[in-house]
Amino acid sequence: MIRYVAAEVHVDAPPEAAFALITDWPRHREWMFMTDAWQVAPGKIAAYTGLRPFGFLDPMTITRFEPPHVVEVRHTGTLVRGLGAVRVTPRGDGCRVIWAERLEVPRWALPGWPLAHAVSVLLARRSLRRLGALLRQ
Fold first, then answer.
1. DSSP assignment, residue 120?
2. pLDDT tens digits for range 17-67
3. Residue 79 has pLDDT above 90, yes or no
4. Prior bond to 111 cis, omega within 30?
């Protein structure tokens, strides 16, 4: 079953600066909640979310990369599958950052989706606010 998660934030920084930080994979730990990310090959990244050993690996293929506005990925792991995108658009003296996911949720996990969705949105908003705070420094 397909389910969606999205969050957005206004950032007081130019789109180029926001996009550069978003796609600096090793710096994800500075703003993305409990997540380390790294490039594993050209066009491929991976992220580990959680506190080892309690967490999950999220391998991704970059399917679209258009600096400084769009990066799209396909989640190819066993736990997280689907499409993700971050879009950065100029807005006033800064930019708007939208993080959206189109996830393939297995039927067995559907009863827990309302809670997973709420937590995902909360953590995405928190992460995007931390991104904005880093860019203001």
1. H
2. 999 999 999 999 999 999 999 999 999 999 999 988 899 999 999 999 999
3. no
4. no
pTM score: 0.92
- SS3 of 24-92: the string is CHHHHHHHCCCEEEEEEECCEEEEEEEECCEEEEEEEEEEEEECCCEEEEEEECCCCEEEEEEEEEEEC
Q: How many domains does the chain have?
A: 1
Residue with the two structure tokens 């995902």: 120
Q: Say if residues 57 and 105 touch (Cβ distance below 8 Å).
A: no
Quick one: angle between helices 113-136 and 15-22, nearest 10? 120
The domain that holds 58 is classified in CATH as 3.30.530.20
Question: Which domain does 17 fall in, by range?
Answer: 2-136
Asked whether the bond before 68 is cis by omega within 30 degrees of 0, the reply is yes
Helix (H) or strand (E) holding 6: strand 2-11
